[in-house]
Amino acid sequence: MGSNTVPYILAGAQGLPPLPPATLDPLLDAAARCFARFGIDHTSVPDVARELRVNRATVYRLGGNIEQLKRLLVTREGYRMMAELATRVDAPLGPEQLVETMTWAITHIREHPVVARILAGDANSVPHELFWDVDERIPQIASLVLPLIDSAISGGHLARRDPRVVAEWVIRISASLIAVQPEVGTEQFLAEILIPALTPARSRKRE
């Protein structure tokens, strides 16, 4: 399942920061454990060094400071999520499948230990920790899903709308639902608006 989605995922990934080498996985895993335990803003390079059982000079040499470690971790987790999406999503993408995919992605991100730690912390710190560099990252992440959405619209599987607007809307609403869950379930919340808005006119007529 999902093998026909891979070309779209790869097309969207162009221009992203490169995947950190696997040799950095132990360092990034240690950083993730510290972020989940202490919170990103309260984690220091010495914390990561102790977790990895190395000296802090090694952490600086391999991954840099906390800000750089955070960026490397986000990049790695983003690539891992893309790989998972490629196995879950079949092109072409219809409205129902888009809702299912968004629901999975939102839930998956909320359950990540680092994100869960952020959401469980001080409400005033959530926007700062969760949405850092948001102006840069939303267009970047939207570009990942744009080829898949553009193909679905061109093929008549989604309603004819501006694919760039749809891609950005998908990312913006997903980000808001990661931060604050709706009273109804995430899937129901998305389906209520998305399915009518993105169902092609001919499909609505058949109903």
Automatic annotation (TrEMBL):
<keyword id="KW-0238">DNA-binding</keyword>
<dbReference type="GO" id="GO:0003700">
    <property type="term" value="F:DNA-binding transcription factor activity"/>
</dbReference>
<feature type="domain" description="HTH tetR-type">
    <location>
        <begin position="21"/>
        <end position="81"/>
    </location>
</feature>
<feature type="DNA-binding region" description="H-T-H motif">
    <location>
        <begin position="44"/>
        <end position="63"/>
    </location>
</feature>
<protein>
    <submittedName>
        <fullName>TetR/AcrR family transcriptional regulator</fullName>
    </submittedName>
</protein>
<dbReference type="InterPro" id="IPR036271">
    <property type="entry name" value="Tet_transcr_reg_TetR-rel_C_sf"/>
</dbReference>
<dbReference type="InterPro" id="IPR009057">
    <property type="entry name" value="Homeodomain-like_sf"/>
</dbReference>
<dbReference type="Pfam" id="PF00440">
    <property type="entry name" value="TetR_N"/>
</dbReference>
<dbReference type="GO" id="GO:0000976">
    <property type="term" value="F:transcription cis-regulatory region binding"/>
</dbReference>
<dbReference type="InterPro" id="IPR050109">
    <property type="entry name" value="HTH-type_TetR-like_transc_reg"/>
</dbReference>
<dbReference type="InterPro" id="IPR001647">
    <property type="entry name" value="HTH_TetR"/>
</dbReference>
